[in-house]
Amino acid sequence: MATRAAKPTKDQLAAAHGTTIPDVLTPGLRVLFCGINPGLYSGAVGLHFARPGNRFWPALHGGGFTPRRFDPSEQDALLPLGIGITNVVARATARADELSADELRAGGAALARKVEKYRPGWLAVVGITAYRVAFGRPKATIGPQRETVGGASVWVLPNPSGLNAHWTPAGLAAEFARLNSNLP
């Protein structure tokens, strides 16, 4: 297991506002996980879902995608497993509610182009509200979607942020497992 990046200082967190993190992406992945946007902690350390307490990595393991719980510093080890990570909006903010509807829609359009270029089998968007706004699908629910994005099948998952407290770690893992059981 890789070593977790040092906790960023208050000044480093403030400086991370508006920064971006490179995608973990290569052509032909089984599934491309798509967050809403990076938080300041992730922006400061340059890793996806990096804030301690974010439940993405435990849910990924609990859902059977990884052989053990990965640390965010091991994000590139997902690629050989056919898994990638991107975001609807690239810029880091303190909270997702700092993003405008126009910014989410523009991010959705950019994401569709990215998916078309890289051709993952599935796009898994973590965050129902962001998905609804970004793709103009106000009635979307958690789970598989009828529509595709950029030619890929879409599965919407709950946001794994610790702020999304009504989804328990076990519930998140179960939703991730439901997606995993539907992958080829």
Automatic annotation (TrEMBL):
Keywords, alphabetical: DNA damage, DNA repair, Hydrolase
Q: Could you tell me which SUPFAM superfamilies the record lists for this protein?
A: Uracil-DNA glycosylase-like
The organism's taxonomy opens as:
Bacteria, Bacillati, Actinomycetota, Actinomycetes, Pseudonocardiales
Q: List each copy of the Uracil-DNA glycosylase-like domain by range.
A: 22-183
Keyword DNA repair tagged: yes
Protein's UniProt name: G/U mismatch-specific DNA glycosylase
Highest taxon of source: Bacteria
**Which Gene3D superfamilies does the annotation name?**
Uracil-DNA glycosylase-like domain
Please report the organism this UniProt entry assigns to the protein. Answer: Amycolatopsis minnesotensis
